[in-house]
Backbone:
């Protein structure tokens, strides 16, 4: 197996490429620059970022002890983001990455317990762990599920969730197989509609949530998961794929992707089989619901066929292309996030606030 993190000269490039992602997740760009300046190499990446996370965690604990609930919640959320971003590479110390994802999950839970004590709850079921958040002053809202990608987690997409909550939509963000807190104990699942079905089953038993008006947003590889689920899960009314692949070509994928897949899947053979299964060519024409494909024009990865082909093939597909957007469009949130949130509210029978 190749070792991406030992590639000569890779550390500055990795730091630069992940800046937009970290900022899109809600981290301050100046803090990101300051913290990552202390990364000696990619072996040290998780340690340096975890140290930043623990500084915010300590600040949160102090604020909570002083009765400063708003400050404490904000600090817990920042800590969760740092803990998660510390894991976004194929690091050989998988136990360390698992521990950091657990700390991200715990910090996120403490943040929501303070900020949304009556509106947020943990949800679990076969193949997933997540959190359900409800909008304020809305009775029986529709619900949007958020599916992470290959190395992302439910803690990474609070900015998206907040935009949906502000429009009167409930949000269920979750870690599925091979993701977030489940990365250490399960392998990625290409038939992701089974996971989405389990989440919807759980939500159907939750009072005050209109599962009859449900949609799914998938981020990065989660974009494939969103389209795949829309082709199979009849309870979805709409889906959004953000920076998702149309299909993968293993032989052309860069080492970062193949290393990450291999570590998450458990072996090279399993990773190759997973990559072969990520293919929307037979599925996109069968998607019966509205599908919005969000693409950044500068997001070009060898071996990853652009999801614009998915929008073309889906019977009700639409493409939102942001020419200057990168992967996950963290550098262009104002050019896609409000439009996407409004698109979802209209498809679920609500009006943007």
Residues:
């Amino acid at each position: 197996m190749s070792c991406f993190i030992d590639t000569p000269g890779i550390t500055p490039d990795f730091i630069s490429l992940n800046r937009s992602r970290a900022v899109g997740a809600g981290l301050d760009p100046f803090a990101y620059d300051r913290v990552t300046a202390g990364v000696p190499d990619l072996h040290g990446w998780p340690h340096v970022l975890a140290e930043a996370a623990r500084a915010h965690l300590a600040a949160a604990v102090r604020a909570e002890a002083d009765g400063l609930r708003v400050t404490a919640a904000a600090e817990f959320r920042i800590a969760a983001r740092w803990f998660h971003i510390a894991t976004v590479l194929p690091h050989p110390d998988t136990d360390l990455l698992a521990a950091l994802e657990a700390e991200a999950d715990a910090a996120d839970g403490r943040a929501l317990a303070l900020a949304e004590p009556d509106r947020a709850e943990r949800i679990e079921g076969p193949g997933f762990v997540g959190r359900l958040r409800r909008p304020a002053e809305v009775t029986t809202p529709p619900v949007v599920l958020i599916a992470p990608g290959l190395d992302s987690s439910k803690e990474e997409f609070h900015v998206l969730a907040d935009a949906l909550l502000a429009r009167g939509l409930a949000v269920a963000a979750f870690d599925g197989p091979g993701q977030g807190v489940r990365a250490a104990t399960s392998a990625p699942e290409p038939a992701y509609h089974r996971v989405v079905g389990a989440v919807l089953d759980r939500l159907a038993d939750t009072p005050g949530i209109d599962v009859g008006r449900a949609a799914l947003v998938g981020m990065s590889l989660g974009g494939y998961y969103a389209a795949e689920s829309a082709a199979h899960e009849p309870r979805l009314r709409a889906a959004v794929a953000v920076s998702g692949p149309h299909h993968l070509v293993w032989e052309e994928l860069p080492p970062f992707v193949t290393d990450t897949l291999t570590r998450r899947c458990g072996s090279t053979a399993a990773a190759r089989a997973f990559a072969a299964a990520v293919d929307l060519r037979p599925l996109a024409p069968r998607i019966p619901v509205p599908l919005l494909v969000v693409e950044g024009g500068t997001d070009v990865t060898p071996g990853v066929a652009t999801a614009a082909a998915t929008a073309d093939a889906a019977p009700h597909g639409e493409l939102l292309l942001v020419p200057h957007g990168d992967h996950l469009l963290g550098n262009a949130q104002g050019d896609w996030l409000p439009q996407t949130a409004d698109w979802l509210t209209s498809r679920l029978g609500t009006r943007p606030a």
Remarks:
- The first strand starts at residue 120 and ends at 125.
- The radius of gyration is 19 Å.
- Residues 245 and 306 are 6 Å apart (CA to CA).
- The first helix runs from residue 10 to 24.
